[in-house]
Structure formats: structure tokens, C-alpha cells
TrEMBL record:
It is a multi-pass membrane protein. PROSITE patterns: PTS_EIIC_TYPE_2. This is Putative permease IIC component. The lineage of its organism: Bacteria, Bacillati, Bacillota, Bacilli, Bacillales. It comes from the Bacteria. One of its GO terms (molecular function) is galactitol transmembrane transporter activity. It is found in: Cell membrane. Residues 5-452 form the PTS EIIC type-2 domain. It comes from Pullulanibacillus camelliae. The chain crosses the membrane at residues 6-28, 40-60, 88-111, 142-160, 224-242, 248-271, 292-322, 328-346, 353-373, 415-434.
Amino acid sequence: MHAAMNYILSLGGTIFVPIVLIIIGLLFRLSILKSIKAAATVGIGFLGLNLVVSLISQYLSPAVQAMVDRFGLNLTVIDVGSGTSAGIAFSTTVGALIIPIIFGLNVLLLLLRLTKTMNIDIFNYSHYALTGSIVTLMSGHLIYGLIAGMFHAIFSLIIADFTAKRVQKVVGIDGISISQGYATSTVPLYALLDKVFDGIPFLKNRNMDTQFIQRKFGMFGDPVIIGVILGLILSLLAGTGFKQGANVVIVVAGIMILFPRVIRIIVEGLLPISDAAKKFFNKRFHGKELFIGLDSAVTLGHPTTITVGILIIPITLLLSALLPGNHVLPLADLAFAPFFICMATIMHKGDVIRTLISSTINMVLVLYISTYFSPYYTNLAKNGGFDVAKNGTKVSALYVGNVFDFVIVQLMRPGILGIVALIIISGLGIYFSIRRRQSQSEKHDSNITIDQ
């Protein structure tokens, strides 16, 4: 079983996701050649996305390290990053079992019409595996760990359904949702803060997105110029020489342009499958919808996400130094900050100021939660034989600064009573999600009637 899971995971998003999309395309009566072309186009888009992400790793990670060294941050827990975290999560017994269990659970919930999202983002099942592994380590019971991972997946599906229409509007394609285990965990906070912002005069009834900035400040709002300015800020804070600083400037400006371009390729590939799904459900299920659950990476093309994601790097370093009780030194994950704040852009409709404020508050939670989980994380790394935890080094990752992880782990402490509480929370979430969908459907039908 473990070998089979490792093989599936080794395929990566560039291969596994297209394979699943070919199957979905055929199920929705898309021709085999069109299904292959659509799926291959999505794979090419993910390949391009990986290339852009590799630029972040190659050029921004050293700048982050230089900032840490320059500011002399003395924190005792090392952030080893999301890649290592996924490896640790899948190296456990829970990790070996989680993929078929979560996939089967998702299919069951679809058949029962309790969700509209089919989560094909298999690699990011690692978030559910990590939740379950921590609970197993804490409780000593494998079954509790598997149940915890399942509840994390259910929470993610509820949020994926809740945010689907907003995601589709921002990305520009119907029939998708974001079901990634970290991104979905940030939505409750961002939704709450959006309501708070509505009551603040300065933020109320305004949408200060990048287009607004460009209209207001002309060329200073252009994505390339924003990228150059952000790159200069990072270079100055890192104290780099001319060559390294110039590389950082060009890479940040390049990210502002390249992320939207590669996302367009992914969207281009998804469109035929989305259209086929709509026709299929309109014909056979009276317009019922199915959302394809994807990685949050597909939202990264928005200029607000990239802009705030770069700004949040030095802000998070400052927070790590100032927050009492924080022990995590942000390193490996910090350069990938846009992934941590992308749903803020979705919930705040691209408003830069709201997204920046919300993202800062979110990173406070990330630092505290990743500090809290560091003893468990270090033990899991040791048990998995990972070198990052050798010689008494304490490790964690911003990746585990996940609100769903924290809530589920706390509720699982009492055992059966915690499971009952999680069932009630999940049931209420699904109930209100269904009610919301019904309300939206009735509103849509009413608008059609008025138009006629």
C-alpha cells in the first residue's frame, strides 16, 4: 500500500492531475482527443507553474535567509517548509492510508449530495495526513488519527463549496473550487474580517484593487513597476550586492507577469472540461453542478495575491521577532507566502488594503500554531527518519500553522466526545452550505424569470 501511494505521489501534479482530468472529461462525454488535449494543457500549465515556483526557491529563498542573518533572529524552531512537511505526513501509517480513505469519503459525500466538490488535488491530501498523524501521535490510536484526517477533508470540502463562485469569478472559469487543506482553513478568518472591514469607514464601500491603484497612480500601478519596487524593497532589507539584488528585482517583476500567464494556460485547459460538465449536468441532472477541487495555486495569477504575498515576507519576519511566545524562525516556507494568503484576495475581491491587513493577522496565527505543533512535528520527523530533526534540532513549518489542524487536534483530545463535537460542527457546516446553495439557486431562477 505504501509503495503504491509513493508511486502515485511521485507522479506529481503535472502527470496525476491530467490523468484524472482525462477520466473526468470522458465521463462528461468529451471526446478522447479533446479530453487528452485539455488535460495535457492543464499539465503544461502546472509545469509552467512549477518553473515559476522554482524561481522563488532559487532567488527569493536566499534573500529571506539573508534577511534572517542580517536581523540576527534568534529563534529555536526551524521552519523546514511544505515539501518536507508533505514527506513527513506521507511517511506515517496515516499517510499510507489517507489517499484511498479521503478519495472514497469524497465520492460518498458526492453521491449523498452533501458536497459539490470532487477534490482531485491528491498531493495536498498531505494536509489531512499531517492532521491525522499528529492526532495519532497525541492519542496513541490510529483510528482517531484517520477520523481526524477525514474531518479535515470534510471541513475543506465545505469551504470549497462555500467559496466556489468567488473563486470562479476571480480565476475566470466555471466548475472549479479550491479544496486545498491549508487554503480552506484561512477562509473563516478572512470571511469574518471582511464583515468587520465593512463597518470601518476607510475600508467601507471601496475596492482598492490593483486596477484602482493603476488608475490612481498611473504607471506606478503597473504590475511590472510594482514588481520592481517590491524587488528593490526585498533587496534592500536583505542587504544584497548589486548582482543578487538585480536578480531578485527581475525575479519579483517576472513573477508578477509569469504567474498570470501560466494560470491562463491552466484555465485554457480546464475550459473544455468545465463546459462538458455543465452540458452533462444540465442534460441529465437538471442543471446540478459539480466542482473540480484544485490546488490554491490556480488563484496565484491575481496581482493582489502576488503583491501582498511579497510584502508579507518582511512583515512575517518582523512578526516572528516581536510576537511573545513565538519560537518559529520562518525560512523554507516564507518565500512562498502568496500560497498562505491567496484566499484573502478571493474573500476581499482583490482589495489590496483588506488583503494585506487580513494576511498579517493570518500570519500571526500561523506563527503561533506552528510553534504549538513544533514538538509533535519534531517527533514525526524523527520517527520518519528525516535528517532535519537530527542532533536535537527542533523543527516545524509555516505549513502546519493551520487553524483546522489546531481545532481538530483540540477537539480530538477528549476522544469520543470530541468526535461527536466534530460531527455536529460538520453537520451544521454541510446544512448551511446546502441551504446557501438552495438560496443561490432560487435567486438565479428568479433572475432568469425576470429577464424573460
